[in-house]
Structure to design on (197 residues):
């Protein structure tokens, strides 16, 4: 959150298009924060995109697109953490069988520090990982996304997916995440107590 992922994605697409190369952009259908479908950055950049849901087949879509339209030189996916394991596998097939570079932008973990399915397999199977950094209120590197209520207090339970922006989430460093959300600290205590017996 707040690292500029969507801005970097849109800049990457612009770089391809500026050189006469075609890109295909994808965004999750469930992200309705900005009203119109597409990819929107917090600094005001936006571009239309194909929307995907959990049953969307990227490989089939690309094969059909290539048959009926112009060539595709790069695929860019916003909010890649919403992908399923099967969709990540489809993207691997696109990069290896169709030799089309695929760039996915997303979060590593949810508001409790648990991996999203899409993130888990992107991290495991990607050829290259690039971290886009943001900072915590203390000035340290923020690596965690803490869900907050209207009074900015941490929330420690709820559905994994809740679409929201700065009103719902706060980017924090691991130190401040552990201080606010006890599940990682409790897990560590269980591991340590088990090791001592």
């Amino acid at each position: 959150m707040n690292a500029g992922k969507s801005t970097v994605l849109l800049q990457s697409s612009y770089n391809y298009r500026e050189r006469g190369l075609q890109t295909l952009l994808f965004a999750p259908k469930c992200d309705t924060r900005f009203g119109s479908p597409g990819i929107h950055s917090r600094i005001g950049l936006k571009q239309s995109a194909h929307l995907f849901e959990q049953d969307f087949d990227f490989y089939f879509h690309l094969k059909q697109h290539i048959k009926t339209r112009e060539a595709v030189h790069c695929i860019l996916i916003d909010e890649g953490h919403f992908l399923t394991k099967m969709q990540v596998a489809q993207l691997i097939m696109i990069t290896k069988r169709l030799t089309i570079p695929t760039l996915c932008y997303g979060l590593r973990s949810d508001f409790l520090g648990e991996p999203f399915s899409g993130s888990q397999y992107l991290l495991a199977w990607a050829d290259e990982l690039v971290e886009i950094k943001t900072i915590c209120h203390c000035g340290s590197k923020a690596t965690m996304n803490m869900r907050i209520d209207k009074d900015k207090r941490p929330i420690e339970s709820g559905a994994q997916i809740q679409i929201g922006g700065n009103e719902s989430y706060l980017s924090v460093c691991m130190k401040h995440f552990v201080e606010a959300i006890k599940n990682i600290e409790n897990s560590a205590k269980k591991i340590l107590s088990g090791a001592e017996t």
